Amino acid sequence: MPSIEATNLSKKYGSFTAVSNLNLKLEGAKCVGFLGPNGAGKTTTLKMFTDLIRPSSGEALINGVNVHMQKKKALESVGTLIEMPEIYPALTPREALTMIAEIRGVPKAERKRRVEEAVSEVRMSEWIDKRVGKFSKGMKQRICVASAILSDPSVVLLDEPTSGLDPRGMSEVRDIIKSLKNKKRLIFMSSHLLSEVSDVCDEVAIIDHGKLIVYDTISHVTAKVSGGENVVEIGLRNTVDADLVNKIAAKLSYIIKAEKSDGNTFKIKFAGDLDTQEKLLADLVKMNIGIVSYKPASSALEGAYLSLIKDTL
Amino acid sequence: MINMTETTIVSNNKVPSSLTQVGITMKYTLLDYIRSRRFYIMLTIAIVISAILTFVIGYYRPANFLVTDLSFYSGWWGNIATYVIVLSGIFFGGDAISGEFQNKTGYFGIPNPIRRSAIYIGKWLSALIASTVILVVFAAITLGNGLYYFPSVPYEFGLSLLFAWFYLIAVLGFTFFFSSLFKSSSISILVTAILFLFAFDIIQFFVASLAQIEPWFMLSYGGQIIGNILTVPYPAHKVVTSFGPGGGAGPDIGGFSMTTFNVQIPEGLAIIGIYFIVTAILGLVLFERKEFTG
Lengths: 313, 294
Hints:
The complex is a heterodimer.
Chain A: E1 3-13, E2 16-27, E3 30-35, H1 42-48, E4 57-62, E5 65-66, H2 71-74, E6 78-81, H3 93-103, H4 108-121, H5 137-149, E7 155-159, H6 167-182, E8 186-190, H7 194-200, E9 203-208, E10 211-217, H8 218-225, E11 229-236, H9 242-251, E12 255-262, E13 265-271, H10 274-286, E14 291-296, H11 298-312
Parallel strand pairs in A: 3-8, 3-9, 6-7, 7-8
Antiparallel strand pairs in A: 1-2, 1-4, 4-5, 9-10, 11-13, 11-14, 12-13
Helix pairs in contact in A: 3-4, 4-5, 7-11, 8-11
Chain B: H1 18-35, H2 37-60, H3 63-66, H4 69-93, H5 98-102, H6 106-109, H7 116-149, H8 155-181, H9 185-210, H10 219-222, H11 225-228, E1 238-243, H12 245-248, E2 256-261, H13 265-289
Antiparallel strand pairs in B: 1-2
């Protein structure tokens, strides 16, 4: 089972503590969002897991192996995208990714196929033999995403993976992350985009001033902060009728509030946990109202995030 | 889509040995070097210098160049080769490591199952190969001109070529070490260029001529074996030249003297070797410890 573990992990720069005694264990196939304000210690933590910086104290373990004691073993099944890497400008994506595939020990017989598939997945096939030096920031970012997934890793560490991408690129990267999740990978992803985290992640770890504030499922985090209340966003095939929303709110007793969001979506605030969320979905389906999507509202996570971060100020 | 097992993660990947990874890094960095503008600029510099020398010697036929085959190689190769080497060192080594930080290429390579030392050595080897290509081009043009004027090639030229390559190895060791000290490419290139093109020569001059101390601690002093081997007889280790009143009889009667040290071959090889070993170790240690912050 893939795992990432920080044990009393700290990083100090002189008197400034970037990460303070971080204890966090992520295990199994899931996507964990790593949230926090600028300077909270997210990138520093990810860098300690990838040998870009070394901890002042504590341990960074991947699949049970200490990254700084046995780097090669620890990172042998890890795909990474930290900050916005640059690629040697005179190389083509095919060459740069083949280099990474060779370093990671992808078998020779599979290398060409894996590189082409990874490039295809980030929609860069037509650029595969062009030199990287001529690429835009977003194109380079796509190649770096391809590099992270190239060797079929069990653990993927991503630092703001959609940064620098256009909306289409962001959506495509989110799809890649979702497909990795479906393939039983452990993904640890920092992001400032709470809607993105709500969309692709199962759990969140929130860090501020170098300290872990909370690590739990998104539902639990939002429920904790909102006093046991949760918000889901429901998308309908047809335009939402305000009367329908009111009827639903009246019919289901555990609903606190229901309101129309925009054309085809509405939000329901309810009291309860994941079980209630599951029951709500079942009840709504029974009503045969034409549901096409159902997810925790990103605003709920945003509310929780702001509340938690505000509490530490 | 990448074919990944849905339930269990089975990987056929087998991370290669560090030695193999050195070769992988070398191969792709060399590809980057060979395609880069700086490689062609350096090649052009070597060719332009050679073209100017070819024209000047062919047109003016300077006597001191054309007395013997050795005087030809001494005048051409002995005077210019060290500059070609130093320029290659600056071009290919000046920002080789600092560029990993400033240009963020390190973020692409380092978070992989590879030791930093494998990246360092791989990059160093590719810089050595690229620089050797430049040196070989310059040597080939020298040889072509030499064969035009003289039927034979003195064996001393072969030794000088070998010493030049040793010197190149040490220069690259030094430039990589200096590159590891900085995170800014431009600063590391500038500092390396100032050191090799001005500072070392000035220090060497003052230490030898004025303080009359042999500059055995200067890499550029060790590199003098490249030119000295082409001088027959080999220059004396210490030469004191007096100038001024009394026919240059010395400082007692108002004149002054200047001391010149000529490095001997074993000493020169030792300086080059020690410089390489020390700077290679220091550079590796620095790169291993340096953090990708900011």
